[in-house]
Amino acid sequence: MNAGNGSSISFQSTQGFDHALVPPGPPVRGSPFARPACQRKTFHALLAAIRAWQTEQMGHPNKSAILVHNERTGGNSLHEAVGSLYGSKSILINSPIDLNIQKKTIVEALFEAPHYVAGHVTLPEFQNALKGIERKDIVFFTCIRDPIERIVSLYNFNLRVPAALGSVYKETAGKGFSYFYFYMVANYPSMVVNSQCRYLSGAGFVEARIALENTFDAVADLSRIDDLLSHVVKLTGGKTTSTAPRLNSNAESASNSEVVRRLVGPALRRKMESDNTEDLVLRECLLNDYDGFFRSNHVPDEVTVEEGEPCAQS
Q: What is the pTM of this model?
């Protein structure tokens, strides 16, 4: 990646690739990045909580940290931990519309001092909004999760915080997980159909894999969120003595495999896996190729080849 060459942000990850090779997902109605309306006062209450959470004085980072945040991928824990590094210099974005409204403010803030910016917007949307900011002054990171588990977590979140997804609660409450899933596919597919690939690249698996390796500074599976936090702190030049706050571990957490099995029957799981094939493959690549944690300065292990043995190209 070109994180240290002083160039402005650019995104050319799709160059030279045949988009026809990317398997199409299910039909998408309306805007591919549509999100349900969310009351700003509900969302920004979290920002107020972050700013209030400063019981320890943290080191001052010398770079801005940008979290490309897909829903239900450890965001609250990262907001609390990374946000504490930056104190009041934290900005949360709930949607592309919110980003557009705050774009001028964000750019001015990043020119003034390092900030933590996190949002439910795609990497290309962030890059477009931050044109002119030196790439070397920014750390891009994200966290991904098993897509079936993530959607179950989104379902539980909708029940637990009715205002969070706008009208979704009113339309789906009391009708079960299956109804919720098909409602979201029909009305907000970008949240439940290969959403992680879209967040990483604005497109599918091929582009997301390239963006992961060429643009992001750190990408971790949810299981390695503590390692992600430590690495982001190191890259930004900050100092912290705390780990990521503990993830939700109550009995109904989607991290509980029994909860997922109870809500997602065999037929529905096959449907969800078919809808989210690209996200599943992306996570498998992250787990297999990088042990669940990609770092931009990561050097693959050297392959030792015995004399006379052909070298297989990976």
A: 0.76
